[in-house]
Description:
The structure is a single chain. Strands 10-11-13-16-19-22-25-28-31-34-37-40-44 form a 13-stranded parallel sheet. The chain contains six helices and 49 strands. The radius of gyration is 25 Å and the shape is globular. The chain is mainly beta.
Amino acid sequence: MSRRQFLRAMGGALALTRWRGAQASAGACAVTTAPNLFRSGFEADESGELQPDYYMPAERLFIHWDAPRLAHVGIDVDYPLTGYDWHNRTLSWRVLQGPPGMSIDGSGRLHWTPLQQGAVCVRVELRAGSETVEHAFTIQVDNTRCVFVDGNAAPGGNGSLTSPYRTLFDALVSVQSGTGRVVYLRAGLDYRIENTSWYSLPPGNPYRVVAQGSWDEADPLLIRAFPNERVRYSFLNGSGFVLGSRAVLIGVELVGGNAGEMAGLVMGTGAVAKYVQVRDYRSSAQDNCTGVKLYGGCLLDHVEAADNFDRGNLEFHNSSNFLFYGTSGLPGRADAFLIDCISSGFSVQGFKIKHAGAAGRMHLHRCVAFGSRNAFGGASNRSSVRHSLLYSNLSESTNGSYVLGLSVTDPSTAGQVNLDRGMLVERNLVIGSHPSSQGLAQADYAFASGDPMSARYLRNEVIISRNATAGSAFITYPFSPLPSQWRALFRDNRFITPNAANCVRLGSQLTAGVAHLNSSFGQGNLHTTTIAPVQRTLAGHVWTYDLLDDQLRRDGVPVANDPLG
């Protein structure tokens, strides 16, 4: 062997030692993220009208905290990282530092199959336009902290890859609050959890430990489907899956059916769900029948909730596919993000904010809702609904008929109200195709209490309504006369309705056209009665709508909206 060959071989060995051997230090993985200041030029006319600190998240471009902190030899980490850009620019990913063979695809899914145990430092980069951010973390390859479940396994397993447990309950016996683990679920069997209320179990019960436990961002609890497998859990007469703080759920389908209480997926503050489906939950209206119930600080990424509602009460206003409680949140990370999520099938509400307060706000980003009477309903609490598709073709209900509905506050909840400056609603496609539907409705509950604001900013919307009556595009519910100091900002919206003269209704008496909006409440608003077919790519699917045939399609297939199936 020549001297050059010897040195090259030694250099390779040293490189392998760096990532295979010693524990990666925290300093080696530390990254100082460049400040992402709000830059002029991305979005027009925000100075003086839009208050960034009020509506916007603290970070406009970020990589979410969750990452594959634990791994098993011989198993691909196969982890979907989450990136977010307020401006909705195209995102691109790159691995800046990592072991040989590590890669990341265009969606942010990280791949690497470890060869042996040890710690590795990983740094990834997210780019949006000219801006970049980095995220660094340590992956600990430790087989002893990985637990496996396979419903087809022989009894008496020890939870290892070669001798898995048969039930999730057995696997969770080893889970402790504050100590990270990975629980791998193998496919091939419809798992069942029956007659179980996670919160009412004894304190040491494994389900309750998961429901009320708390983990650290650097050492979370991860419950996930085995890579390239899809796992389904069915629930009966009890709560669905309940996640504690900073617990992560990936790649699991949760199915209800005559459930007794709560929701299909309940997420504590700071919990994460990715590529999860929650459907067919049927609890009563008294229990706020919900597919996904979440609090402040949560992340939902590519979660679809479908057909979650009280079968005995098809109009109860709290039946919803997604229900966010805005009165709880983690300090410094109170915002909840729903990114690329879908509300489908039937529900009374697709996405809903309940009991809005100052502690938490929700950002709906690049989401889709169809099949519900009301695609979005929210009590105003500084939240935002942006770059999303909201659609309904269902008839009027006792709670009104709107695609996107806002109220200043929840009028029946003392001490949990937010009489402030409303929500930011922009760059959405809002379609009310039923002849009785309003595109956007605003319930003026708080006007009687002297609050002057509600839907603070509505801009760059495309609102389509087949309704020809007053307020078909935007209506304020006439619970009280509109105060003289009330002001909402309408800017650069496009209304497509049969009648331009009365597409907007403000207050209990006033019927207004687009000219009135431009002269009193904004500028650049337009009206037309015809529109070419529209198309958007959201939540991993291509959505098209043609006003002529009045049909919403997902990837070319018409979506179903029949509340009975």
